[in-house]
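Action item from last meeting closed. Structure (294 res):
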């Protein structure tokens, strides 16, 4: 199949889109926080967001649309095909990927090869392959002020016609080689990770969602503690089907800080992942991604 993502001929100053965000609209991609941030600090810039709506986050989508409604500088165009994405990237100056966690995002490769400057998340493996190039920046998605400083710097460089240094990625074979570097890095990390990991789940009337979490946990890797606030439904009965420790407390005893602290003292692992029953991981790899930065 003909590749549409290898073209960086158009000068940055001639590109019409100042900032583009590509990815599903969901909490893990940090889209809503990025929109609020861009509205506040880059109101004069032309911003495009493209990506699929996540049907599992209806309330999140509602908040997202409320932020971009009547906002002339931000245009959401939904999901696009590869040819349309290539056209957009070739007309964009900067790609922002503000995700809270990524593996090795291919959209960064596509953007670099279309001549975009990339501001990616520090919680990915991209730094292993792009860190020596001034067309690639990694930022902390929890530190929006840091992203602002980086964007301000990039726009100054673009206006001064700075010649950015891009990675040489002339084919998907090179991308595959980069992925192999990341896979090797990840295998070494997982082999050397010798800390015990616990998952603490706080529940209340969670029968409709709790099993979606419990059934994807690898109980040979993680110790699981359920702290239930005297549910009226079948939450506890469902939890008993799995290899979990269960503590039932009175609802009046629940406290966001104290209950979690009680759980921390009870579970006794080196690392603890705190969850609520309505935060459903996409798959079992989610837990590995959470502990990887440690």
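Sequence:
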């Amino acid at each position: 199949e003909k590749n549409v993502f290898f073209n960086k001929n158009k000068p940055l100053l001639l590109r019409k889109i100042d900032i583009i965000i590509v990815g599903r609209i969901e909490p893990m991609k940090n889209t809503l926080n990025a929109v609020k941030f861009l509205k506040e600090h880059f109101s004069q810039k032309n911003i495009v967001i493209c990506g699929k709506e996540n049907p599992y986050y209806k309330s999140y989508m509602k908040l997202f649309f409320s932020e971009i409604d009547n906002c002339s500088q931000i245009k959401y165009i939904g999901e696009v095909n590869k040819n349309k994405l290539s056209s957009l990237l070739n007309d964009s100056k900067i790609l922002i990927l503000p995700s809270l966690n990524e593996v090795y995002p291919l959209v960064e490769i596509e953007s670099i090869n279309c001549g975009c400057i990339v501001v990616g998340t520090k919680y990915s493996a991209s730094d292993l392959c792009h860190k020596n190039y001034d067309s690639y920046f990694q930022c902390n998605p929890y530190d929006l002020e840091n992203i602002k400083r980086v964007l301000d710097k990039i726009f100054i460089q673009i206006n001064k016609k700075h010649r950015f240094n891009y990675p040489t990625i002339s084919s998907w074979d090179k991308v595959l080689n980069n992925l192999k570097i990341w896979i090797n890095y990840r295998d070494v990390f997982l082999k050397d990770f010798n800390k015990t990991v616990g998952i603490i789940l706080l529940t209340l009337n969670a029968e409709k969602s709790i099993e979606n979490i419990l059934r994807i946990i690898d109980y040979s890797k993680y110790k699981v503690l359920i702290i239930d606030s005297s549910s009226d439904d079948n939450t506890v009965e469902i939890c008993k089907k799995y290899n979990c420790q269960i503590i039932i407390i009175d609802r009046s005893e629940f406290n966001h800080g104290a209950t979690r602290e009680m759980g921390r003292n009870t579970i006794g692992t080196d690392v603890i992942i705190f969850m609520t029953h309505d935060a459903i991981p996409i798959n079992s790899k989610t837990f590995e991604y959470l502990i990887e930065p440690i």
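Note appended to the action item: The chain has eleven helices and ten strands.
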